C-alpha cells in the first residue's frame, strides 16, 4: 500500500471513517464533529450546536458513521442514531437514546435481494450495534413527493391564473 494523501481532519482521535460515493470520505472525531471530505477539502460537516440546538457541545459526540451513497448513518456515544441525506446532511431520522449506551457501529442494509425484502416499502434500513449488547434495525420511511406531471400541471395553472389576473387588473394587457 502507498500513502496517497495526508491531512488533519480532526482535533484529536478519529472514531470512525467511511468511504462514500465520488471519492468522498466521512469521518467522526473525538472533537464532536462529523465531516465529509473530498480529497483533503472539507465539503460539509455536522456540529452538535447546529444539529441539535439546546444540547451542550461537549455532552455528546459522533461515534460511528456509514455512507450508503444516498444517506449517512450516524451513531453517538449516548446511544442515539440518526440518518442524514449524504450530500446536504439534512437530518431525516433521529432516535434519541435508541440504545442505552455507546453505539459502536452502524451499517446500512445492502440493496441485495434479502436486503430489499427487509426494507419492505421503506427507503433505507440502518442497523445499529451498541455496548448494551443489542442490535437494532432502523427503518427510514419513504419520503412522499409529488409526481412530476402534477407539479408541471400546477405550474401551468399558476401561469394561466397570473395571466388572467393581470388581464383583469390591466384591461388590454394582452
UniProtKB/TrEMBL annotation:
GO terms for cellular component: endoplasmic reticulum membrane. SUPFAM superfamilies: WD40 repeat-like. This is PREB protein. InterPro entries: Sec12-like, WD40/YVTN_repeat-like_dom_sf, WD40_repeat_dom_sf, WD40_rpt. The gene is Preb. It comes from Cephalopterus ornatus (Amazonian umbrellabird). It holds the Pfam family WD40. Keywords: Endoplasmic reticulum, ER-Golgi transport, Membrane, Protein transport, Repeat, Transmembrane, Transmembrane helix, Transport, WD repeat. One of its GO terms (biological process) is endoplasmic reticulum to Golgi vesicle-mediated transport. GO terms for molecular function: guanyl-nucleotide exchange factor activity. The chain crosses the membrane at residues 146-170. It comes from the Eukaryota. It is a single-pass membrane protein. Signal peptide: none annotated. It is found in: Endoplasmic reticulum membrane. Its main location: endoplasmic reticulum.
